[in-house]
Amino acid sequence: MTEQFDLIVIGAGPAGYVAAIHAAQLGLKTACIDKTVGKDGKAAPGGTCLNVGCIPSKALLDSSKHYDHLQHTYADHGISADNVSMDVATMIARKDKIVKQLTGGISQLFKANKVTFFHGTGTLGADHCVSVTQISGDNIELQGKNILLASGSVAIEIPGIAFDDTHIIDNIGALNLDGVPERLGVIGAGVIGLELGSVWSRLGSKVTILEALPDFLGVADKDVAKLAAREFRKQKLDIQLNTLVKSASVAENQVVVTIEGKNGEQELTFDRLLVAVGRRTYTEGLLADDSEVKLTERGQIAVDENCLTSSAGVYAIGDAVRGPMLAHKASEEGVAVVNRLAGKHGHLDFNTIPWVIYTEPEIAWVGKTEQQLKEEGVEYKGGSFPFAANGRALAGGAPAGMVKLLADASTDELLGAHIVGANASELIAECVVTMEFHGSSEDLALIVHAHPTLSEAVHEAALHIHKHAIHRPN
Ligand code: FAD
Ligand code: NAD
Questions:
Q1: Which domains does the chain have, with CATH numbers?
Q2: Ligand 1 atom 9: residue of nearest CA
Q3: Which ligand is nearest to the CA of 106?
Q4: Are 456 and 395 in contact, with CB atoms under 8 Å apart?
Q5: Would residue 464 show up in a list of annotated catalytic residues for this protein?
Q6: Is pLDDT above 80 for 391?
Q7: pLDDT (tens digit, 9 = 90+) per residue, 270-319?
Q8: What is the mean pLDDT of residues 399-423?
Q9: Taking CB atoms and a 6 Å cutoff, what residues make up the pocket around ligand 2?
Q10: Measuring from atom 43 of ligand 2, which residue has the nearest CA?
């Protein structure tokens, strides 16, 4: 017999699992299907983010940061240690334990919220019918009043440079190396290249990042990108811009990469090569021929502004559709769709979705960059504040970076915030709130910020817009 649900969610990443829980909380009879098998052989809901993305990368960034600081910064505090060593296997095991705790937590949340979970592959056919090929081997049929597709994304493979999961690897491989490669090549100076490049560089790899574009981190504000590039160079991350990778081949436990860069054609040899040139929507096994759901030319699930696909009652969210590939975007998109299904208001403003890169220093931004405002012909005013003039940053040994704010020249509404520095990931939240409420830089300037905190740099940048900064020239 076909089991009936109000909502069937395919995929339990941050898009799908959050939507499923929220739907059940709003009283919808909800099923969620996910096929991920964890390292322990059990179901591991949580998608890319929890299993092979956000969380494991942050666990390794944290471990590697401690190792790096012990060697390079603690001496300033008068702290030294002999025979410092680290063990990659222990770091990976710690990371795996955190992943297991969190994916297990989602299974518990599903139970607590009465979401019916199916471990297997869900395939959508006509008339909102979903066949589930369960990992257990049983096939079952479900039918939903509404369907939510949240199948996520996988790493893009460069034609001719196939992943072999040993020498030529994606994010999954780079989060599970069994030792520190002496030479790590990375294709792509994007978010993954910088975060995972930092992990292995801190642990001792000589990391070379090959980026096709001439500008470093072109999506970020140019001042932020420039400052970050300077810090990464100090950390000996070798970032080669304007570099085209023409081929890569594996022989004798090494990867030989042919590049076309500023010195013409050249061969580089690495022990491992991480390919991090973006991600593509994953739809394998998701749609039966009669599903009526259409894909875009880029292979994403085509949706309108309310995440409705070309098939009535079928919605799609997260990395499977247009927009930034970020966990919080995926989750909030799911919440918005579910709210609308339940007759409530669903809201998501792409302009106020924060971006964070968890390197050292961290990079975070929200809203428009200065170059975007110029391109759009918007009149703006700017203010900034360096962490080198912030007492808490100096006390914490993190003087690198700055806060830069951009506000409308006539209304003073905050249009963009760009932070490079320690805890930028947390500091950006205040700017997101201000922008969501259409607040002004004067609002930020009038708010009391605790002393001594890094957030005083946000306050001073806002004051600087009005030429009233206290701890820097105006
Ligand atoms: P996914 O997380 O990819 O989940 C989709 C799920 O659906 C998967 O479990 C998949 O197996 C399952 N699935 C697919 N098809 C089917 C099917 N037919 N049947 C059953 N199950 C199916 N974002 C951030 O915001 N912050 C970060 O710090 C961050 N770090 C990242 C680090 C790395 C290394 C990577 C790779 C990504 C990172 N991201 C980060 C991006 C983030 O992981 C994604 O944006 C997010 O996971 C997207 O969520 P999703 O639910 O749309 O897709
Ligand atoms: P990305 O889009 O961030 O960066 C890819 C980089 O590769 C770009 O700079 C691009 O110009 C470059 N590139 C593309 N083709 C190339 C080629 N053939 N040769 C050399 N360079 C090439 O992609 P990513 O780093 O793979 O990450 C994928 C997505 O995952 C991100 O866009 C982001 O949405 C998400 N992510 C987010 C976080 C975070 O929020 N902290 C962390 C990791 C991943």
A1: 3-155+280-348 (3.50.50.60), 168-277 (3.50.50.60), 353-465 (3.30.390.30)
A2: 47
A3: 1
A4: no
A5: no
A6: yes
A7: 999 999 999 999 999 999 999 999 999 999 999 999 999 999 999 999 99
A8: 98
A9: 158, 187-193, 195, 210-213, 245, 276-279, 324-326, 356-358
A10: 192
